Amino acid sequence: MKNNFSALRTKLKEIAHLNTAMTALMWDQEVKMPLGGAARRAETMATLSGVTHDKFLSTDFVTLLTELKKNSGAKKFDQGQAATIKDIWKTYEREKRIPKKFIEDEARAISAGQTAWQHARKQSKFSLFAGELTKLVELARRKADYIGFRHSPYDALLDLFEPEVRTQEVSIMLDELKKFLIPFLGKVFAAAKKENFSHDIFSGNFPLETQKKFNREIATKMGFDWHRGRFDESTHPFTVAFHPEDVRITTRYSQADVFYSIISTVHETGHALYEQGIEPRHFGTALAQPASYGIHESQSKLWENMVGRSTGFWKYFYPRLQELFPEPFGGISLQDFYNNLNAVIPGPIRTEADELTFNLHIILRFEIERDLIEGTIAVRDLPEIWNAKTKEYLGLTPKNDAEGVLQDIHWSQGGFGYFPSYILGNLYAAQLYARASQEMQNLETEIALGHFEHLLNWLRKKVHRHGKKYDPQELMMQATGEGLRSSYFIRYIEKKYADIYQLKP
Hints:
Oligomer: single chain
Number of helices: 21
CATH class of the largest domain: Mainly Alpha
Order of helices and strands: HHHHHHHHHEEEHHHHHHHHHHHH
Radius of gyration: 23 Å
Mean pLDDT: 93
CATH topology of the largest domain: Neurolysin, domain 3
């Protein structure tokens, strides 16, 4: 049986290498490819997707997997092998229902959709993307039908990112979160009139090369391994891993706003540290994959918010920021800097949102894509719906489509079902950080001294190295001693912003 598992690993590595090639092509499309290459790239992606699908459903692969699955309950495999068999079997059960032609059509539509989205976003004209988005929504509905679902077609798509989580559960969770956020935000907004915090005090002229230098310094200090990774620019910040030894980050820059890149860099480095923390020897198996997208988001959110927006983080980095950009930071105290950095200021852009309003951005997106997939709203109406919800939740209206419905890349990639992972990531992050703080009583002091390695090692031990050995709930039990609880996130938010805004209990 061990030899059979070894044979399965060999085949899984072949598939993983094909997926790596497609990931590299996707990265190139976002970062380097000229616009004119879009049509040919779509055909290449479709062909490779079809080849990968064929390999996964080949007779010898399925025969081998079926034999291993039959014996998986006989305790003949270690925990990692059993997790791999379980994960691959679930993927096989899903993939065998999806025709190869659909896989190829979807790959073409995604490649074309990304190019159309980029063009539409630059022109701030949703109509340039609407046709491709309509195709992607129709394909997503068809995929849900192929996979199967009991209640909502969105269930089938959500499960691709958050295993065993259902639409109704997410809807209930987000409604509960709204019940906390809206009154708490009301208190913050009332206090904000008195405190008058604003990001405007950070405005200036920040040379891009100096920004890039500072961003690299931050990523390096956090633990990013440049021998196994690189940094580039793209329209939308993202992280991809071709392999644990080849992890790519992108960010974006604004000469007028240094934090346009810094916060994104810390966020994406959190993702990259997770990928670099996976043991290379597990490449191709479940142990080389994140437990879920929500767990992956927990790593970026933990570094971005619990660490990257903390007093300790800036006790260490603020003198360097002042040295590189004496105007305006030379005249701003650390406490004023910290308060204004964490100011709660509603804005239209999700990636620039503060910790509180960010969650409302996600709720908006979840509700829209759920309704799109369930067929209760139409693509042509999205700008109007988006703007109305933005007004309802955040009290403002986007100036144009680029600032509104076109700001995110996810739908152009066919990523319907991903957005709830962001909020789950916030909840996981708060609970993990609370546990890390208990086990490392000097954590805040270490961060203030620029010693991030102990936190990183803790995360490597508790999260990164396990991959999919555990499902998310099991992983949280292993790491924190209990299942996911929203109370940690709520307590974290209440304490932090009560201190900043001097809120009364």
